[in-house]
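In this section we turn from sequence analysis to structure. A common task in structural bioinformatics is to predict how a protein folds when a small molecule is present, because the ligand can shape the pocket around it. The inputs are simple: the amino acid sequence and a SMILES string for the ligand, here coenzyme A. Study the lines below before reading on.
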Amino acid sequence: MQRSQTVQTRTSPANDEALQIRPVRRGDLDQVIAIDATVTGLEKRKYWLSVYRRYGAGGQPGAQFLVALLDGRVVGFIIGEVRDWEFGSPPCGWVFAIDVDPNARLGGVGTRLLQVISDGFRRVGVRKLRTLLARDNTLILSFFRSQGMMAGPLIPLEMELEG
Ligand SMILES: CC(C)(COP(=O)(O)OP(=O)(O)OC[C@H]1O[C@@H](n2cnc3c(N)ncnc32)[C@H](O)[C@@H]1OP(=O)(O)O)[C@@H](O)C(=O)NCCC(=O)NCCS
């Protein structure tokens, strides 16, 4: 109930020309780091600088690091890349991070970010999109499900490595 009230009182940036999606720039990083810190509770400046070098402008081919701006302010980001023949699969687009500023959620920003990164993958011939998510993160699961994503054929495995 609370959620639909919030939606009704907001304009939808997805249909608003004020929402811009573009590749990240070095000057956006402080805002990206701040959004991540708000969502995860940790400020990881060194990590973000290395992500920027790998996936930002001039990074590896097939990599995309996009930001969403509302009235010139970064309100979200998405990061992904094309992985060729990993896990025995033909090239596919992987999304490995998406975050929207809690104050800008439920207005279509996440949807636009996913659309634009998918367009980028399509342009390089990729026809499948994948992601991994924590089993208990129902928010991100609801979001990806709303975008048409469903359980895929791979299962993650892990074990402890004794030191
Ligand atoms: C998931 C997230 C990216 C969604 O961004 P957003 O801009 O709010 O998404 P949208 O407004 O485009 O929502 C699209 C759809 O997702 C679903 N959805 C989004 N938020 C939801 C919520 N709180 N509860 C249930 N469904 C939700 C809905 O189906 C929604 O469509 P609707 O508004 O027509 O019902 C954002 O909530 C976020 O950043 N969450 C934290 C992400 C995270 O945990 N990242 C770390 C792992 S990568």
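The domain at 17-146 is CATH 3.40.630.30 (Aminopeptidase). As an exercise, try to locate the residues that line the coenzyme A site and compare them with your own expectations.
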